[in-house]
Amino acid sequence: MILGIATVVVLVLVAVALLPAKKRDRDSGNLNFTQPFARQANFRQQQLNEEAEAIADEYQRRADEAWRDELGEKAATLLKSKPASTLRSTKS
Prior knowledge:
By secondary structure, this protein is mainly alpha-helical. The protein has a domain at 35-69. The protein is 87% helix and 0% strand. It is rod-shaped.
């Protein structure tokens, strides 16, 4: 009698251990079906991020170039309008 109960308990435990494993296998099969779509979405998001970064870099480069040109013009104007001054050394 005890051997019969132990056998039933072992069978139930084995069945419980196997059922979730089979369910996980089925769930992972569904993920494989949707995974290419997720991969495409991730790839598209990566492309968009790279394009946005390239646009931002180009904008920053052009802004820096314009700033340098403007700064050069201002410096040239200031240097031309300022009379030549002599440097004096002061001794204490």
